[in-house]
Amino acid sequence: MPRKNIGGKEGGTKSFSGLEQLFGSKSRFNLLKLFFRNPDKEFFVREMARLGNTQLNAIRREVQNLEELGIIQKAETSDSKKIFYRLNQKFILFSEVSALIKKAELLAEKKLVDRIKELGDIKLCILTGALLGTEAPTDLLLVGKINREALAKLISKFEKEINKSVTYTVLSIDEYKHRKSLTDKFLFSIIESKKIIAIDELEEFANDREVSTLF
C-alpha cells in the first residue's frame, strides 16, 4: 500500500475563511465544527458560545437556523432548566458536511506546520492525539531546534482558530535518539499511535508504507 497523502496544496492558507463563506458565517461554521467534532455529545446554548468562542446572540440565531435545517435537534435530558442540542446524524448531508470540516482541519494543520518550519530547524514533526481524534500523550511532537516562545504563541493562536486545546512536546535530536534507544514509553506510545508525519528529515518513517503524510 503506498504512503497516503491526505493534505493538498489548494487553498491551504484560506481553508477556514473559505468554508465560513460557504456555510454562511463564522458563527455557523464554528457551531458546525463543535457538533461534528463531538457527534455524540449534547450542548446547551451558553456552552456552545463559550466553546465556540462566539457571541451568545449569534449562537442563538445559528442554533435556530441549524435546527430548522435538520442538522441539529433538541436532546431529551433530565435537566428541565436547560435545552440541550445534539447533532442529527441522520441528516441527509451528514457525510458530506463532515468530510468538508475534516478537510478544513487538515488544511489548517498544514498551515500550522508551514509556520512551525519558520520558527527553527525541525527534523521530525508528528501530529497525533486530539488533532486526529485519538488518544495520545501529546498532540504534536517536534524534534529539533525551535523558538519556544514563538511556538507557544503560534499554538495558542491555532487553538483559537480550531476551538480545540492542543498539547505539544519539543525534544532535541539527542534527547529523541536517547529516549528511542531506551524504548521510552512516552515516545513509543506516540510512534505507535494513529499519526500524521508532517516532517521527517531524520527518515524515521521512510520505509513505513502505512504512515500517513500531510503533504
Pairing-aware structural class of the strands and helices?
alpha/beta
Q: Please state how the strands of the largest beta sheet are arranged side by side.
A: 1-9-8-5-6-7
Q: How many helical elements? A: 8
Q: How far from one another are the termini?
A: 17 Å
Total number of strands = 9
Gyration radius from CA atoms, angstroms: 19 Å
Low-confidence stretches: 1-15
Mean pLDDT, to the nearest integer, reads 85
Q: How does the major sheet shape up?
A: 6 strands, mixed
Structural shape: elongated
H/E series: EHHEHHEEHEEHEHHEE
The proportion of residues forming helix, as a percent range, comes to: 40-55%
Strand content: 15-25%
Number of domains: 2
Provide an overview of this structure.
With 215 residues, the protein is of the alpha/beta class. The protein folds into 2 domains: 12-96, Orthogonal Bundle (Arc Repressor Mutant, subunit A), CATH 1.10.10; 119-213, no CATH class. It has helices at residues 15-23, 26-37, 45-51, 56-69, 94-117, 148-162, 173-181, 185-191, and strands at 4-5, 42-44, 72-75, 84-87, 120-127, 140-146, 168-171, 196-200, 212-213. The strands form 2 sheets. Strands 1-9-8-5-6-7 form a 6-stranded mixed β-sheet.
Which terms summarize this structure?
215 residues, alpha/beta, Arc Repressor Mutant, subunit A, 2 domains, six-stranded mixed beta sheet, three-stranded antiparallel beta sheet, 8 helices, 9 strands, 45% helix
